[in-house]
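For the sake of transparency, this paper describes our internal protein records without simplification. Such a record has a labelled line for the sequence and another for the backbone structure tokens. Nothing more is needed to write down the fold, since each code stands for a local backbone conformation. For reference, a complete record is included directly beneath this paragraph.
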Amino acid sequence: MTITLVTGGNKGLGRETARRLIQSGHTVYIGARDAERGREAAKELGAELLLLDVTDDNSVITAVEELRRREGRLDVLVNNAGVFEGMVNAEQATADHVRAVFDVNVVGLVRVTHAFLPLLKESPSPVIVNVSSGLGSFGVVTDPQRPESHYVTPVYSAAKAAVNMLTVQLAKGLPDIRVNSVEPGFSATDLHGLSGHGIQTPEEGAEAIVRHAMIGSDGPTGTFADREAVLPW
């Protein structure tokens, strides 16, 4: 049985990822800050719940200890928890914006990954999936043919660019773990509060995440891709 943890798994892309992986036979733990919402989502999905705030050391340590007690290992870590600062433009962006977004999207990812590494190393085929964005790709945002090139999101984009570099460095430094970044695409979730024409469903957005969560020991590592193709960094 594959043991999987999806941070931010009680809603949005994390919830849909958890649902799909459970259908595929994974035992999925959803990480959630809010106990009530987490329990409700876990019950509806048939998942297990880990109370987990990626910005809090004690919360993460407690979650690691709980998973070690219950399972003894972790096979797949999906670093999905994230925040979006809204359309803060270059003139409006402040240090407070950067601090708030990086604390979750970057520092939180490092905190969780580092804490769960001992359990990942107990897996015969460990996998880390970092949920990123095309807005964090230099190649994508500088390509005038891509819609991402028309958005100005300095704080969020910088955070996701950091996630991508962390993916590259973790893949190099942890050769026994498959580590990849994925671009789920612009999906209708409450991360940004937008929905409507031209925005894909959470089901579509979860496809790339799920696919990379299910790779084997011979799968790719150190890559960045959406559900259709490998993307430039």
User: Anything to note?
Assistant: The helical segments are 12-23, 35-45, 57-70, 95-120, 138-141, 154-173, 202-213. The longest helix spans residues 95-120.
